[in-house]
């Protein structure tokens, strides 16, 4: 199956980009690359961004990595450890 050739990029200057940015963003969203050029500096290319991970996230990648504490987790600790939190003043 043959793929369609991508349209040639539109080259514009910085002044034109500032004046008509919305127009050129729509061009890029439509699939036409837009290159903003500036004399003596590398160009900047506006292209349509594709999602990194299309679709739903996988369920369960943290399975077995999360531990729940029981209600009596502090029973084995020494009582003086909790003195800092008492308000006996």
Short précis:
This protein is an alpha+beta fold and 89 residues long. The protein contains 2 helices and 3 strands; from the N terminus they run E-H-H-E-E. Strand 2 and strand 3 form a beta hairpin.
Describe the protein's architecture and organization.
- It contains two helices and three strands.
- The protein is α+β, with helices and mostly antiparallel strands and 89 residues long.
- A three-stranded mixed β-sheet has the order 1-2-3.
- The chain is elongated, with a radius of gyration of 29 Å.
- The model has no long low-confidence stretch (mean pLDDT 83).
Rg (CA only): 29 Å
Structural class call reads alpha+beta
Note the quaternary state here: single chain
Please state how the strands of the largest beta sheet are arranged side by side: 1-2-3
Strand content: 15-25%
Q: How would you sum up the global shape?
A: elongated
For the termini, the CA-CA separation is: 81 Å
Biggest pleated sheet: 3 strands, mixed
Counting H and I runs of at least 4 residues, what is the number of helices? 2
Q: Regions with pLDDT < 50 over 5+ consecutive residues? A: none
What share of the residues lie within helices? Answer: 10-25%
Number of strands: 3
What string gives the helices and strands in order? EHHEE
Overall residue-averaged pLDDT value: 83
């Amino acid at each position: 199956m043959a793929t369609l050739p991508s349209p040639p990029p539109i080259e514009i200057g910085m002044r034109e980009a500032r004046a008509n940015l919305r127009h050129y963003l729509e061009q890029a969203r439509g699939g036409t690359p837009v290159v903003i050029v500036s004399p003596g500096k590398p160009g900047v290319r506006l292209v349509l961004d594709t999602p990194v991970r299309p679709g739903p996230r996988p369920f369960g990648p943290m399975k077995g990595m999360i531990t729940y504490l029981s209600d009596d987790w502090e029973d084995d600790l020494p009582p003086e450890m909790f003195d800092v939190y008492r308000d006996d003043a």
